[in-house]
Amino acid sequence: MRTVGSSVVRKEAWQKVTGTAKYTDDYAFAGLLHAKMVVSTMAHAIITSIDTTEAEKIPGVRAVLLGGSYPLVGEAIRDRPPIAVGKVRYHGEPVALVVADSPVLAKKAANSIQVLYEPLPVVNSATQAFEAGATLVHEKLGEYKRDNEIHPPIPGTNIASHVKIRKGDMEKGWQECDSVVEASVSLSISDHAAMETRCSIAEIGPDGKIKITTSSQAPFMVKRLISQYFGEDMGKIVVETPLVGGAFGGKAAVQLEILVYLASKAVGGRPVKLRNEREEDILTSPCHIGLDATVKLGSDRHGKIKAANIRFLWDGGAYSDKAVDLTRAGAADCTGPYAIDNVWCDSYCMYTNHPYASPFRGFSHSELSFAIERTMDLLAEKVGMDPLTFRKINAIMPGNTTPTRVLLNNSNVGNLPKCIERVHELIQWDEGEMIALDERFVRAKGISCSWKTSTIDPDAPSGVILTFNPDGTINLMSGVIEIGTGTKTVLAQLLAERLNMDVNNIYVKMDVDTQTTPEHWKTVASRGTFMAGKAVLQAAEDVIRQLKAIASCVLRAPIEDLDVADSRVFFRDDPGNGVHFKEIAYGYQYPNGNSIGGQIIGHGHYILRGLTHMNPETGEGRPGPEWTVTAHGIEVLFDRRDCTYKVLKAITVVDIGKVLNDKAARGQVMGAMSLGLSFAGRETFVFDSLGRVRNPQLRTYRPLHYSEAPEYMVEFVETPQIDAPYGARGVGEHGLLGIPAALANALSTAAGVSLQKLPLVPEMIWKAKEHVRP
Amino acid sequence: MIPFDFDYFRPKTLQEALQIFREQMAMGKKPYYFSGGTELITLGRVQLAKADAVIDLKKINEVRACRIDGDHIVLGSCLALTEVEESNLFPLLTKTASEIADHTSRNKITLGGNIRGGIHYREAVLPFLLADSTAVIVSAKGVTFKKMSEVFQGSLRLENDELLVQLITERKWASLPFVHVKRRRQWETGYPLVTVAALMSDNGIRVAVSGLCAFPFRSEKMENGLNSKGTGIEERIKMALDGIPATVLSDVEGSAEYRMFVLGNVLRDLVSELEGGIVV
Fold first, then answer.
1. SS3 assignment, position A177
2. Which end of chain B is more exposed for a tag (fewer CB within 10 A), N or C?
3. Do A702 and B262 touch (CB under 8 A)?
């Protein structure tokens, strides 16, 4: 292969390393107004008064928006007022929006608004929300409009959605078990902490044209939702997205776009920008979901898992939005990558008085992996089996079925045993799980496995357009957002490979606008390379056909005698004889001036094949196209006295199908691992008893620092997905999935106590050890 | 983004700075001595700090002093922490300073700013408490010299019109064996659960602590406990812990019980290190 597999430098690299790359907030122009939110200081309270008198007196303040006159919004369930009405349901919820001539004026005015609250009882965890008689976060849950008829909310409770998996015969399954363990694990809500805080600009023209510029993973969804929520004509809405400075799922939700649209409307359509300050990005905008899980697993005497009963209580926060889909995705892959014939799972999306959830890299899978993999270690111990061997004999394989009863084959699932074997070697498992260095210090190892399919909409589209420049170079346009993953460079590689040409002669349009760029559903779920890649290959076929058609006239030869390479069409048997793209891509001119053909425009599209909705009673269905599998290992140096530790090594082996861009793939996996270590080891919201976040600043909310990173080892197994571009599987999220679990497993071994809560800070380990001390 | 307007002054002498301060006060304005600016910027944007007049001290020579003066080390209050580290005139201070915030921030955070700061850790003060340093303070009435033990009681006790100019430390303290340990909630970044600085003097171990209570301190009672001869190490640690002068914090960094656990181990280690590893 010529381009596929090589580490092509990403197309936007120069802009980024020179600091000239432009993100949404970098766009400023004359006449731009600025919005600032007033956000709730309480987690659950009645708003008794809002005094905007002072704010309205400030010269340069153009509008003050309060809730009450806007329709409810929300993706699965329309349960969320864009600006709070009557009550607030989470700390950080917008209660007013000020529009002013400058950011400073807007902030001054926002600071002058006085809001009085009357506190209500707070639902402060998913478990509490689930208890009988719990305070209701939404009193009128049954009255909301919704799209989700398969797993609807349950009025009179805090349940926004209940997804069931009923596979096999549980009674028979438990009868076959010799060893059974049950474990409860939990992790609290946290943040995405992308470098770029969210930002949106909206402007409404006199013709009703709505132009929105936004740092989003889902500009096409912004267009659809603004249309659905507010009855605007879809064609009048144009959404632009420049480069995005990190997203990790947090920018797949639509929030600020709605607020700037309303703000612009309130000031006669003038352009309005709303940029989150860091605290707002942490508190107000949707965050990383929390989970309380109970997992019961049983195996026979040979260590074969026979039954699993799993309950997930997802902390979706105050509004359901994407949490409903997260709940479903968690159920679909609930067992982790293991072949289990008898599975019962109840996955509940719970309302709480916490900031609400958006997707987070891995879309429920790192969280469920933590629950499953911790329990796997406990069961292995009970069975008396090495945890690595235990995983290997239960690894899911072609011929097995998933919890939703999809039959796996050699293409739609990777080779997990091979990943496990490689981790076995890399972590030097045979030297022992724990090695005491002296009385205080031990080196300990933990392993885990994970998998993921992408449970996106069954009809999610992706499209690509190719145009030519007169010099024969090609422009590639795709609706994939460049969120830092380098996907658009990989798309150029796929095109270069198929056309057998120099990738430097392919130009990629980085910015997306929903009017001229073909749609890519959302840049989420590790689907960019797969779906847009399929569209690229189809578009490549389209231009090859067109190029050959005109070349066959010019060269006076049948199409089947022609081939394409190095930006030329030539005779298969006489490669020196042919025409360059530049002679034919804009039509061919004969010496006498006669011209034939015309501008060549190629297009391609892709839609996922054969996905089905899940059965509401059994969960049966085909939620996603393929499963990428991974194995992880982590080695820690643990201080048994202080309960402190250093992560020495983090290993991920992922069956990627085919490596398309080696360094980019490693970067993706390593970056994901780092994100996993960060929330496994430190990142979390700390809630007080009133449900307020006590650490909504980077002073006290601290992602992993570069200096704290371990040695990363990333390796790939290549089991091709037959219908994917060159066999490549999704890989954007998978490096993260089993990392929290592997860290917890290593530390549980080191500390001699089962650690079932994240983050794994030394104090938590100390407390767990104190708790079991005789 | 700082949502308030302020006047900016950059005096060249201490007298000028004091005069501006007085004038602004007289006009009913809130003046604010400024050098690195980290606190005004980071707290100002979240409405926890405010100023009408910012008086930038960086152009005044005295506050930028960094020298050996006979038997004394003279350090200006507006030296950036990284400058303090690079000069390395007081190795314990170098170590303490190097663990505050991150390098980029320390290029801005100043010695005086950290000691006078609104954020309660104020770790840069610990070495000066241990070394009985002298604070050089200037006001309209002139220059006064005060012992740190006197002027720093949890925070720097200055009158409204007083300004910390320099910290003077006898050189003998800079050559003593020392230990500095900063323990955080997790790994290598963030505020301290506890920071402990210790010096081995002729009369025993001196120890100062930040992060444990809502202010940094040096406690004679703790030191007496730690230095009580003829008792076992566990008893000494217990007596030291009993000498903690105020409520131990429970906050997002950690609980009071855990802080006590961590402090106990830190004290054990530092006694072992300063007394030569022989712990009975």
1. coil
2. C
3. no
